[in-house]
């Protein structure tokens, strides 16, 4: 009969990980702030409880053997999960219930975010909302500073992260209504690219990178003159007839006080011409609530945002938000 191993002691696991990282019992003791004998005893206890040896004792410095390498691969996630549990218990104790930390890209937080909070506030669930850029949100999710994140690009190469598609939106050309009204002939994006400079989102943002790839694909080679992190200053220059921009319906709704002064023109369809939104969360964590967020988001878009955009910008096509 196979021997049943004892549950892994987390302090012993931390000692094992420290030895692997520092290459010695002495280094591990310094890293953990304990004695070398305490580290040696923790490793010996871990090996005894699991019924295996974890290091090749003949090598100097000690290197993990096959069993040790298998444990090393799992040690980080195990300790990380234990830290998350401790943190969340503290959060629950302070708040009276377990809060959900949701991070969103700015355009989503400013448009869908308020309706999500309103919908969730009627339940026992508490929600804390963060906004930011996709790379920062992805890192916060990876570091367990967030429970779920709504991003526009999947940047994590981590099998533990679940990526749930929510919706996509088409890139559109944005131009001043006044500038367009002065042209008697029909104007399309090719004419704009020849007559006006492209006002860009900065390359620090995912949307800026995506639009730049799409513009190159379309052959738009406008000099880099105006670049912004946010939609508001970008649209202020468009409304002032200083250039044209490429943006998305959700970004336009975020800065909707400019909608009376701008018009939109379609761009060629294709995968490069769309921005996708994903809900990211760790596998086995917040699955039900993640599905609730996806369903709520779809309802907000279908019942509120799409109809309002259709009234304000009738030039938008039916595939503007899918």
From TrEMBL:
SUPFAM superfamilies: Periplasmic binding protein-like II, Winged helix' DNA-binding domain. Pfam families: HTH_1, LysR_substrate. Residues 8-65 form the HTH lysR-type domain. It comes from the Bacteria. CDD domains: PBP2_LTTR_substrate. InterPro entries: LysR_HTH_N, LysR_subst-bd, WH-like_DNA-bd_sf, WH_DNA-bd_sf. GO terms for molecular function: DNA-binding transcription factor activity; transcription cis-regulatory region binding. The keyword Transcription regulation applies. Keywords: DNA-binding, Transcription, Transcription regulation. Belongs to the LysR transcriptional regulatory family. This is DNA-binding transcriptional LysR family regulator. It comes from Paraburkholderia bannensis.
């Amino acid at each position: 009969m196979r021997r049943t191993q004892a549950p892994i002691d987390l302090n012993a696991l931390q000692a094992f990980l420290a030895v692997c990282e520092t290459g010695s019992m002495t280094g591990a003791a310094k890293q953990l702030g304990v004695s070398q004998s305490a580290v040696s005893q923790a490793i010996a206890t871990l090996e005894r409880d699991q019924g295996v040896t974890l290091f090749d004792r003949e090598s100097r410095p000690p290197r993990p053997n096959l069993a040790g390498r298998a444990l090393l691969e799992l040690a980080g996630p195990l300790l990380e999960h234990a830290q998350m549990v401790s943190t969340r218990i503290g959060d629950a104790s302070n708040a009276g219930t377990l809060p959900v930390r949701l991070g969103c890209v700015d355009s989503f937080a400013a448009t869908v975010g308020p309706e999500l909070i309103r919908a969730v506030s009627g339940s026992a669930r508490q929600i804390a909302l963060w906004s930011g850029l996709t790379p920062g949100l992805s890192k916060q999710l990876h570091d367990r500073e967030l429970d779920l994140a709504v991003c526009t690009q999947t940047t994590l190469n981590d099998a533990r992260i679940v990526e749930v598609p929510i919706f996509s939106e088409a890139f559109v050309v944005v131009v001043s209504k006044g500038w367009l009204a002065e042209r008697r002939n029909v104007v399309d994006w090719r004419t704009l690219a020849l007559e006006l400079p492209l006002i860009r989102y900065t390359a620090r943002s995912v949307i800026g990178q995506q639009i730049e790839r799409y513009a190159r694909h379309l052959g738009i080679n406008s000099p880099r003159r105006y670049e912004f992190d946010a939609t508001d200053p970008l649209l202020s220059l468009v409304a002032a007839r200083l250039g044209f921009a490429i943006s998305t319906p959700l970004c336009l709704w975020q800065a909707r006080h400019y909608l009376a002064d701008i018009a939109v023109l379609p761009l060629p369809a294709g995968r490069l011409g769309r921005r996708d939104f994903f809900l990211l969360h760790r596998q086995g964590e917040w699955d039900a609530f993640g599905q609730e967020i996806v369903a709520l988001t779809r309802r907000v878009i279908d019942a509120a945002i799409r109809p309002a955009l259709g009234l304000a910008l009738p030039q938008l096509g039916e595939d503007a938000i899918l």
